[in-house]
């Protein structure tokens, strides 16, 4: 007799988020990709329309696959101060901090968002799983670190009309919530949720975190409330363009997490990856990688991440960067034509001193496939400040009712 | 408040040697020892009225000659009751085999001619290859990255000394380097007594069996030692190992070291990422711009310093240091000489080993692998009172036995295991010395757990961390700490947990002192 085997695993190779039914209804069949083991839309209907929803109306994005850790205990803040490059102790409850952490050699392991829920309780959101490192970092601290990714669903509402959507959904009392703050709310028909004024778009926006069971109701509520405010479900592709305009770096593309890097010289310190502003070398306590980072500050790092503005309108994806059109000095990590700023923009990792003290006479070598042939162009690039796009509405409190 | 130039934590032989070396170099030095007496596991202890014995370490074959010379230990009382004592492999029916001179220059006993020749060749080879590594006992391990000229010199010297072996020997040296001792012995010898003895010597004090990877390396380590300037030789210090400690303590005091005993360190004080002294359990703080710990490196960094001062990766490495002791120590008070059958007096005053074959040693290890106690323990037996009558009342004797394998974390627990271990060791002794049980008037059993508690040696491990290739040289105790300095400015390591490792050698202290004194502003 044939014994049935669990042979159907291939049928559902990726997990479904709590919002899968909602996503499936709005995502075209070829729009999916895998994100942290979940089916997620890269494109729902149309990438451009979704991008313009972020910049001109409101967008809804399922961030449930983000990895989430709960850090709690009497020494939670001390633990995080030893783990992270930023200074956690002064962060008040209800505040959110963008942060990063390093290995012993001061090379980036990951960036993430830290939510201080209370004096001794935090949530740390990251792109990838790091429980091993977080647990080993807990040795000697009175703290419990647990992955709670599956316990928390996430929904990002981003775009100029996002506050108008909130108001329509009965959450107008969030008007006084400033950027990088969080608040517990009770949403009628949904239940308890945490709202933070955070996002990955560089625009006005909010993120909801709540028990998975309530997520579909919240989706429905926001979609209904946003109907007249142009709310549009979006996929990761539109978000990626928005984040590039906002100058945000992405783990795995703008820097290689040190634990993933096979080649030691591919790792980057926060100073080398454009995240130097996060590093609190002056905080009183030791943190992992501090000595290496102090030394790097003294000596100067090997690389620098810069924003580039490039002539023409052909995205310089994966292009090499040259000085005087001859000397190879680095490469582009992310590039796009920015529809909002009408500029051809890129992030690039350059070898110092290029991009640092030598910023003139830089060129990018763009290869674009045009019907079975490469069109190649050596185009002038200028180092420009990041973010490429930073509208006042992002931080305006109370937010505008667009 | 007390203060000094250097504060040494831990008054074992390495701590004493380090303090003495630093004081002789003009540093005002204070040494703090947690125990009531200095010496750590190298003390002579009275375990029954009138019976004294080297409590853990009982053989001197690694005391570094430079320590003896620079600290003038002989002037400070170092003396040996016997040097170059023989080793006898005890065998059934009195077919014992005695290795005379330095590690078997002569074989005494019934041995085939071919085997004598094979042994002479193997002995020469082992001593030659151990000799290649020997200079590195007294070198600061090189850093492969960011090493600088000194590291390059050390590596160069190693390369050169291997190259100087000549083509054939170099190839053979490199071929054998990471082998296990059982395979080497199978290649070269056929006599089980000899093979058992060498296998025993390779693994004693480690958590390795003869067939464990790189167990030949630990035999090299053993043979890189010397006594009376003779490589591979062993000696019995006068007054037991406490005699060596007394000489070290005398040298330290004479050099001006202030020794505080019964002064356990609560924590190392850190200000601005620099070690600035220690706080004692008594509450007293002693300030010093340099703190050198001869205590266990993991204890030093994880307990006395604290993980919050270290990078997480280093903490992770420190938590992975293997340090499970496997040696129990038994001390017997005998009301007469031990009745070993067929052992001549000269051999009886030396070292007796019960390790009948490689297989027997491996079988004893098998039990330990799974947390059990060896059915038939392998033994190293000394009767030090034969050469140093001061250790026992007139006409009586003291026997000191190292027994393997008695694993740290014995699965049945040592409360009951202690008696079982004693009975099994006595049964083995009885089979070689019929009637010995009736002469025993007192027994002391030290399990690895006892050794850990009493001498602050994690896991009760002789070497303060397993002696295996992944925990040697620049990986000892872990990479990033192998050059005696720590990431904390002013905090140094100087104990057996650092290169080259354990045994009463003083070599870690020698190297640490060089590191400390070599620093500007020291």
Through-space gap between termini of chain B: 21 Å
- The CATH homologous superfamily of the largest domain in chain A is termed Probable tRNA modification gtpase trme, domain 1
The quaternary structure here is heterodimer
The structure class of chain B reads alpha+beta
CATH architecture of the largest domain in chain A: 2-Layer Sandwich
- Average pLDDT score of chain B: 95
CATH class categorisation of the largest domain in chain A: Alpha Beta
Major β-sheet strand ordering of chain A: 10-11-12-9-3-13
Instruction: Characterize the biggest β-sheet of chain A.
Output: 6 strands, mixed
> Roughly how many Å apart are the termini of chain A?
67 Å
Tell me what the CATH architecture of the domain at 6-80 and 238-321 and 462-518 in chain B is.
3-Layer(bba) Sandwich
CATH topology of the largest domain in chain A: Gyrase A, domain 2
Count of beta strands of chain A:
19
> Ranges of chain A with pLDDT <50 over ≥5 residues?
none
Q: Mind telling me the CATH superfamily name of the domain at 6-80 and 238-321 and 462-518 in chain B?
A: FAD/NAD(P)-binding domain
Helix content of chain A: 10-25%
Helical content band of chain B: 25-40%
What fraction of the residues of chain B are assigned to beta strands by DSSP?
Answer: 15-25%
Radius of gyration of chain A: 22 Å
